Amino acid sequence: MEADFVIVGAGSAGCAMAYRLSEAGSSVLVIEHGGSDAGPFIQMPGALSFPMNMPRYDWGYKTEPEPHLGNRRMATPRGKVIGGSSSINGMVYVRGHARDFDTWADMGATGWGFADVLPYYKRMETWHDGGHGGDPAWRGTNGPLHVSRGRRDNPLVQAFVQAGVQAGYPATDDYNGAQQEGFGPMEATIYKGRRWSAANAYLKPALKRKNCDIVRALACRVVIEEGRAVGVEVQRGATRQIVRARREVILAASSMNSPKLLMLSGIGPGAHLAEHGIDVLADRPGVGANLQDHLELYVQMAATQPVSLFRYWNLWGKAYVGARWLSTGTGPGASNQFESAAFIRSRAGIAYPDIQYHFLPIAVRYDGQTAAEGHGFQAHVGPMRSTSRGSVSLRSADPAAAPVIRFNYMSQAQDWADFRTCIRLTREIFGQPAFGPYVGHEIQPGAQAQTDDELNDVIRDHVESAYHPCGTARMGRADDPGAVVDPHCRVIGVDRLRLADSSIFPQITNGNLNAPSIMVGEKASDHILGRTPLAADDATPWMHPNWEITQR
User: Fold this and answer.
1) Residue 543 lies inside a defined structural domain of this protein
2) Is 468 a catalytic residue?
3) Among the options 97, 380, 468, 544, which is catalytic?
4) Beta strands 228-236 and 194-195: pairing type?
5) Band of residue 450 on the pLDDT scale cut at 50, 70, 90
6) Which residue from 44, 106, 252, 272 could staple onto 14, CB 3.0 to 4.6 Å apart?
7) What's the burial of 109, exposed, middle or buried (CB within 10 Å: 0-12/13-18/19+)?
8) Sign of the four-CA dihedral 527, 529, 530, 533
9) Residue 133: its pLDDT value, please?
10) What percentage of the chain has pLDDT greater than the value 90?
11) How far apart are CA 309 and CA 370, in angstroms?
């Protein structure tokens, strides 16, 4: 088997590249270890808690014991299915703040500032405002990826935005437009009541072309001859074979599996590779380093009225939701239920938001376990720019072995201060008049947790990953010893090998990572094809005029 381009990973970026490269007339083979995305567990938005907890769809990775979180081993879901993590995630769509990408450029990712990436966000989107306003000039209208807004007809969803405004924060009708900061409607990759994953948006249309196909196999290593990538060794059952690339090999296997594949191929920290008996072809200490994520805490409140989604949290309720979705594509199952959001600054002197909120009109965990109290609601809240860094490394030279994942969560004193601020600001928001008719007692952290030490105990025991890992093969200048890829996504030190997924983020973006991961695939496609990048868009984002002296 051979093609012009061999892409490893049918995830968010890989699907976008398969679409764009085949659209340009090149032949493409996509190597994907996961299977089909058919069935309601993935396609029904309301079933989002199921696929990330199913071994059929998830690699099932866990961290090593995290020393600052009581040695808890944290779940690290990554999609093992076409569409990758876009097929098992919460479908929340956040581009990131303009300053995120300007920071990338400042860190050596030349050509990846906000003006450079905004045209690719527009190219990939078909945006539906849902009648809630927005910034049409900032949005795309003809892209493969449908982006929509929920109905927002639950009174708790509306109360969250009203409470934010009552607390003195701005409202924004489009956090993906000119103004991220504020409270407003949340956007999702949902279209006509169905999860609009990267597989639905990009891969399935690409596979209808004669020049694009998929190879169901486990990628074992990149085959490198005389300093050039010539193919990928894969395992199918008990058989190993090489899928050859006439032009380039492109890794898009996730921020866990892409650095793992580089290391299995002899590209990475030399001493670490030697420990596992792997010949060092390119000594790149940045491979597997710089691992970042967002943590979040669920601030949960009991509701005094039966207005939450708890009414469906029983056998008959779930049967009704599923049956209605299967028959009409409508009802509670047609939404991920994250329908309002907020981005705020934690304190004066912070130039742009560093706290994100997802609001949910039920008190529930991602594993589907509800709070015992019944009706309730919650805000998922966490800081966006922790300076804690971790790593991904090899457990062994066996391609089937899970990597060693250490996030080093909460290793900086500022992390703890920021999380305590998140909790206290959230309590203030839930105390506003808009929640007066609904708010009962605080379920988590609980009213008894007030001091710094008491809040730290809650954070240590209950903080969860938001499932936004990135940065393990960061982009930078070719002469930067910590960089893994250059600004054209070329792996430094090996010819004809590129990497394009969330691994290349120099710094984590402000919000959920699916949108910027797809954007990376879109922009990388033009670099791979040797095209002139889309013309820069110099639209100016809104910044709070008094950010230096006020928090809101």
Assistant:
1) no
2) yes
3) 468
4) unpaired
5) very high
6) 252
7) buried
8) negative
9) 82
10) 95
11) 11
pLDDT-above-70 percentage for the chain: 99
Q: Which residues contact 204 (CB under 8 A, 6 or more apart)?
A: none
Q: Could you tell me if 160 and 128 lie in one domain?
A: no
- Same domain for 138 and 271, yes or no, is yes
- In the block, tokens 């597989």 appear at 199
CA distance 476 to 3: 29
- Which residues pair with residue 155 across a beta bridge? none
- Judge whether 228 and 495 are in contact, CB under 8 Å: yes
343 in any annotated domain: yes
**pTM summary value:** 0.97
Q: Which two tokens stand for residue 305?
A: 């009225």
Contacts of 434 (CB under 8 A, 6+ apart): 158, 159, 160, 162, 163, 166
Please enumerate in sequence order all residues whose Cβ is within 8 A of that of 59, keeping only pairs 6 or more positions apart, or say none: 77, 78, 79, 80, 256, 257, 402
Range of the domain at 25: 1-51+77-142+197-293+469-536
Strand partners, 263: none
Q: Which residue has the tokens 């950010």?
A: 547
pLDDT for 71-95, tens place per residue?
999 999 999 999 999 999 999 999 9
The values of phi and psi at residue 179, to 5°, are -125, 105
CATH code of residue 346: 3.30.410.40
User: How many domains does one find in the chain?
Assistant: 2
Give the residue-averaged pLDDT of 508-514.
98
**Within 10 Å of residue 443's Cβ, how many Cβ atoms?**
19
Q: For 176-244, give the secondary structure using H, E and C.
A: CCCCCCEEEECEECEECCEECCHHHHHHHHHHCCCCEEEEECEEEEEEEECCEEEEEEEEECCEEEEEE
Q: Give the long-range contacts of residues 128-136, CB within 8 A, separation 24 or more.
A: 128/191, 129/174, 130/185, 132/173, 132/184, 132/185, 133/173, 133/174, 134/173, 134/174, 134/177, 135/173, 135/174, 135/176, 135/177, 135/178, 135/179
Cβ atoms of 342 and 333 within 8 Å: the answer is: no
Q: Quick one: average pLDDT of 129-156?
A: 92
Name the token pair of 324. 């209605």
Same domain for 202 and 302: no
- Is 345 in the same domain as 289? no
Per DSSP, 523 falls in state: H
> Does a cis peptide bond (omega within 30 degrees of 0) precede residue 445?
yes
What is the DSSP secondary structure assignment for residue 96, as one 8-state letter?
-
Tell me the two tokens of residue 290: 């710089």
Q: Is the pLDDT of residue 371 over 70?
A: no
Same domain, 116 and 254: yes
Residue type, 445: P
Same domain, 445 and 509: no
- Look at strands 190-191 and 267-268 and give their pairing: unpaired
Q: Report the phi/psi class of residue 286: left, alpha or beta, with left for phi > 0 and alpha for psi in -120 to 50.
A: alpha
Neighbours of 342 (CB within 10 A): 30
Regarding whether 370 and 299 lie in a shared domain, the answer is yes
